[in-house]
Amino acid sequence: MINKLQIHQLRNLSQAVLDLAECNLLIGENGSGKTSLLEAVFLLSRGRSFRHHESKRYISYHQSSCTIWATTSEQQQSASLAIQKKIDTAGKSDTLLRFNEQPVASQSVLSLHLPVLLIDPVGMNLLDEGSASRRQLLDWLAFHMKPEFYQHWLHYQRLLKQRNSLLKNPAINQNISQLAAWDKQLSIYAKTLHECREEVFYQWIECFDEMIARLLPAYHNKLYLQYLAGFDTEHNLLDILNKRIKQDIELGYTRIGAHRADVAVMLKIQHQNGQKIREQATHVLSRGEKKLLITALRLSQLQLICHAVAQGRVMLDNPPIVLIDDIDAELDAAAVSILLDTVLSLPCQVIISSLNNAIHDEILLKINQLNNTGDNNTNKQYNQSNGQNVSENQQKSYHMFHVKQGEFALMYAD
Ligand SMILES: Nc1ncnc2c1ncn2[C@@H]1O[C@H](COP(=O)(O)OP(=O)(O)O)[C@@H](O)[C@H]1O
Ligand SMILES: [Mg+2]
């Protein structure tokens, strides 16, 4: 977990220093800086913001850089992480990363040490957007659970970029043979990406079913996930690319491949006449139900990763830090309660933001229940499967901060 977090010149946080607990609540008015703090933690882990891809948007006005530092501790081991985003006068951006005071070249060092999972209001549109955000959801799992995934993914992206620029080249028809070399490699990486994704997908759907039973019981055994590889995996991608080379040249990009993978959320509907049909969930569910469904997608990923970390099945050092922005803005009270029960019962650090003071009492109550009785249902289920004993769990520490114009005041510590 992060013990100490320092943020310099990110949006309205000119200089923030916070001592964090395992569970943290940020309360403040609109525009006070709550989302900016979550953005800072996300940026440190992923190297990009969830709000804007250009660093000039989140570096404080009239400044040329922003920096985030964190010290973490896990089983008496401590580490330090830092990221700095800079823009020069020409608008060119640069990133500097450090781990334990040493410069590092790859963001993956920080991502693996400090994985984060974000639940925020914008993410609630996941079902209605294009496939990219759902693919990222699956790839986040694959990245953390399959050590080989990331390198293969990088190779695939590089090859795809080269292939696409060749396709756009006006002289492509004279250079078709050049494509063959890229395509062979591309199809090899497409296969391994598909295998990694498929493997984590099958683990994920079990946890997803459990979460649907809790968050949307009326849809249990009716909602299900479907993994789409982006190409017909019965065939070698090389053959598929060969067959449709003319279409790809016309389009100027590669239409089919592992970069088009998706996760569809499907719903089984039984009509009165007994006929069963399958529909995309997004066409049927209400807006409120979709939010619960998306919460179930995220929480089931969290549960899966936590199980895997506890069993030593992943190369992750630590379970993810959970960032929940505007917790009660989108979800009803019952869903907030299940969300809190789930994240508090898992061995994750959590940072929650809310406009509303009321959530403080609810969190306190839940933490006390968990700490005192240790027989929360979620805890039992979780610990049965990872073999740990609830009563051996440490007490969860809790801090509540008031945020005002980019300043954080600790109001409660337990
Ligand atoms: N690049 C920037 N530099 C300085 N302030 C910014 C920048 N971008 C946004 N802001 C301001 O930061 C404030 C905090 O925003 P935010 O963290 O989203 O607030 P909250 O989540 O508490 O509602 C807003 O008032 C916004 O106007
Ligand atoms: Mg906000």
TrEMBL record:
GO cellular component, one term: cytoplasm
Keywords, ordered alphabetically: ATP-binding, Cytoplasm, DNA damage, DNA repair, DNA replication, DNA-binding, Nucleotide-binding, SOS response
GO molecular function, one term: ATP binding
InterPro entries to which the protein is assigned, alphabetical: DNA-binding_RecF, P-loop_NTPase, RecF/RecN/SMC_N, RecF_2
Protein location: Cytoplasm
GO biological process, one term: DNA synthesis involved in DNA repair
All copies of domain RecF/RecN/SMC N-terminal, residue ranges: 1-360
Residues reported in the UniProt entry to bind ATP: 28-35
Pfam families documented for this protein: SMC_N (PF02463)
DNA repair listed as a keyword: yes
SUPFAM superfamilies reported for this sequence: P-loop containing nucleoside triphosphate hydrolases (SSF52540)
Family, similarity comment: Belongs to the RecF family.
NCBIfam families, per database record: recf (TIGR00611)
Function noted in UniProt: The RecF protein is involved in DNA metabolism; it is required for DNA replication and normal SOS inducibility. RecF binds preferentially to single-stranded, linear DNA. It also seems to bind ATP.
Name recorded for this polypeptide: DNA replication and repair protein RecF
Annotated organism of origin: Moraxella cuniculi DSM 21768
